[in-house]
Amino acid sequence: MHKTFLSVILIIDRYDTRAEIELLIKNIAEYLENNFTHYEIIIAENGVSFDWSGFDLKMEQRQNCFILSFASEIGFDLAVLASFERANGDYAAIFNKTLGNNLDLLSTMFETAQTGFDVVALRDRKRARRLSLSSLAFFWFMRQAGGINIDSRLRKEAMVSRRALNWMSRYRSRNLYIGGILASPEYQTAFIDVDIGQHGRPRGAAESRRLAWTMLSRITQVPVQIASIGISFLTIALLGLIANAFTVRLFGYDLLLRPAVVVPGWTSLIITMSVGLLLTNITLYAMLRVLLVISEDVRSEPLYIVRAYRRI
């Protein structure tokens, strides 16, 4: 018997059936009763709603099961973050029906955490599929610019200590991707390799792009840096073009000291176009700075809206 308070988090969506979830909750509750002194199960309804009153659970189990409902469907990662913020345990474990026949992993993860780790994450022993070029680029930018080394074999299931949970709540606007949460350098992470199939549908292309750009913007600011570098190079090029027009007009040589023929009207045309583009560049840079300020304000806005949080 482990003398600790464990919060188990289940994220359910429209791909889960009532019978599967009822059996899974019952099995988890019975396992926790026999192996942990205190526990709670937080079931996050992400785009699905069941009639929980008809679930076949003992009264003691119902007292320890909580339903978290959202005003609208949100991503898996935000559902995990919302559940983390409501977890009261010394540790919180992300679980799903794929691990229903491997409940001993809860004890294994807890025992591993006791050896000095704040996060114990599961990862596939072998990568299920080859990574796309965009995925490789995302992992590279997160590692080089954000200092977060995300393992491509990382799964969604993990156990997180109270210390790590407090850090995540404090910097919640940074933790919008479960891979980034589990691989953060702010705490010690251990990995357990498993040979278990993945649960649920994979992320769609649109959701993957949104998550990638959100993480890159919030953690590394790579998009902003790329835009700033592009504007800087274009500004330097325009200033060089203006300087070249003047040297040709005044001395008959370009900036590379090559002889140039002066064509009437050419100098004024080049200068006029360059100045116009330069002013456009300055405007774009000002807009970029304004967008940065707006993005900082947006981070303080609610990431999700909770409709209800109640016992079964």
The total strand number stands at: 8
Computed Rg: 27 Å
> Major β-sheet, in short?
8 strands, mixed
> Average pLDDT across residues?
78
Shape: elongated
List unreliable stretches of 5+ residues.
Answer: none
Q: How are the strands ordered across the major sheet? A: 7-5-6-4-1-2-3-8
Secondary structure: helix percent: 40-55%
Helix/strand order: EHEHEHEHEHEHHEHHHE
Terminal CA distance: 26 Å
- Tell me the quaternary state: single chain
Number of helices: 10
Percentage of residues in strands: 15-25%
Secondary structural class: alpha/beta
Helices and strands in order:
Blueprint: E1 2-12, H1 18-35, E2 36-45, H2 59-63, E3 65-70, H3 76-86, E4 91-95, H4 104-113, E5 119-124, H5 133-144, E6 154-161, H6 162-170, H7 178-182, E7 189-194, H8 205-220, H9 222-251, H10 266-299, E8 306-311
Parallel strand pairs: 1-2, 1-4, 2-3, 5-7
Antiparallel strand pairs: 3-8, 4-6, 5-6
